[in-house]
Design a protein that fits this description.
alpha/beta, 387 residues, Aspartate Aminotransferase, domain 1, seven-stranded mixed β-sheet
Length: 387
């Protein structure tokens, strides 16, 4: 096998992984994430009574109510905050926020591929001033700072492409009229958060919540709700599909503007209630700390492996990125492991690095992470002996 980044590598195709080393479940993807068998069973049982029925009627509205009430409990929702659902994923929420939350100018922290996309939206918006963009090199963190003229501060809690995690906290000195919007798509449900530090904590459900895409969910503060009402009652044109006030009004009725993917709602409701039954967000936070910690400890033991995120305080709990030395081909190892049922640990394609990217969302137990480490040890030892 030829290493695309230069130099020959040992023949990975000659390596066989013993069955007894394999994890019980080999799905370690950063999204969509593994779905627990119990969720699929619930989909089979509950889905027969709601699939193919009106989303304006009680059975589907009850699913939305379960989601909203479950998230209210999970996040210990502050007084006045509301759980709002909308059609489309986080991409749709970026557009909604561009229309209905940014009054004139936003400040964006750009850490990688996903955080750059919201910045691109407000940059292109003809009704807004050019945003202030604070960039960090991939694998490193940035911090928001108060800036005159900025009315929205936006960043990801977890940059999925690089495995960098940022705190959710208002910039020091930010005014009451400056909103904080946090993209929590790959962190929500797996990382502790104080929602009083954000005005829009939004996410799609295909990561920690082990569901499908096509939906956005946001915990909105009273200030964010008021901003949306202010802007949407002004002369600014807002497409109905992207209207936050429409999403808020529908969510208060436990429904969405357009027909939602009902299977997504079933999987999401089941996952929320499962996390709550395990001990809630504190349990999920402890679990992802433990599982990602196992991978970081393993990287410290292997000379072929090093953490991509060099600052320990910025390392993600839910997406671990590990660089490999040049003569160990990460994508080749991922291909080998896929043949053995261990899937989706490839590096993020646009990052272009020789690394592994391993997700440790709440559905991933320590036992499977430990088994993955043993498999990786087996492969790396075989490569070393072959070399």
């Amino acid at each position: 096998m030829k290493h695309p980044l230069g130099g020959p590598v040992a023949d990975l195709d000659s390596i066989t992984v013993p069955t007894h080393l394999l994890p019980a479940d080999g799905r370690f993807g950063s999204g969509p994430s593994r779905v627990r068998p119990a969720q699929m069973q619930a989909l089979a049982e509950v889905g027969t009574s709601v699939m193919g029925t009106s989303h304006r009627k009680a059975p589907v509205k009850d699913l939305v109510r379960r989601v909203r009430e479950g998230l209210t409990e999970l996040f210990a929702l502050p007084e006045g905050y509301e759980i709002v659902l909308g059609n489309g994923g986080s991409t749709a929420f970026w557009d909604s926020a561009t229309f209905a939350l940014v009054r004139e100018k936003a400040q964006h922290l750009v850490l990688g591929e996903f955080s750059s996309k919201f910045a691109a939206e407000t940059t292109a918006a003809p009704h807004l001033s050019d945003p202030s963009i604070v960039r960090a090199e991939p694998g490193s963190a940035a911090r928001a700072s108060v800036e005159e003229g900025v009315d929205v501060y936006a960043w990801p809690q977890n940059e999925t492409s690089t495995g960098v995690m940022l705190p959710v906290e208002r910039p020091n000195g930010a005014g009451d009229d400056q909103l904080v919007l946090v993209d929590a798509t790959s962190a929500a449900g797996g990382v502790a958060v104080d929602l009083t530090q954000a005005d829009a904590y939004y996410f799609a459900p295909q990561k920690s919540f082990a569901s499908d895409g096509g939906l956005w969910i946001a915990a909105l503060s009273p200030a964010a709700i008021a901003r949306a009402e202010e802007i949407e009652s002004s002369a600014r044109w807002v497409p109905e599909f992207l209207s936050l006030t429409a999403a808020i009004d529908n969510s208060r009725k436990n429904q969405t503007l357009n027909t939602p993917a009902i299977a997504t709602l079933v999987l999401l409701a089941e996952q929320i209630e499962w996390i709550l039954a395990q001990g809630g967000l504190a349990w999920a936070d402890a679990r992802t700390r433990a599982t990602s910690g196992l991978l970081q400890e393993w990287a410290a033991r292997r000379e072929e492996v090093s953490p991509f995120v060099t600052d320990p305080s910025a390392r993600s709990q839910v997406v671990t990125t590990l660089d490999l030395v040049d003569d160990v081909y990460g994508a080749g190892i991922a291909d080998l492991l896929r043949k053995h049922g261990i899937v989706d640990i490839e590096p993020y394609r646009k990052l272009g690095r020789n690394q592994l990217r391993i997700a440790t969302f709440p559905s991933v137990p320590e036992s499977d992470v430990q088994a993955l480490i043993e498999v990786l040890d087996h492969v790396l030892d075989a490569l070393r002996n072959d070399g």
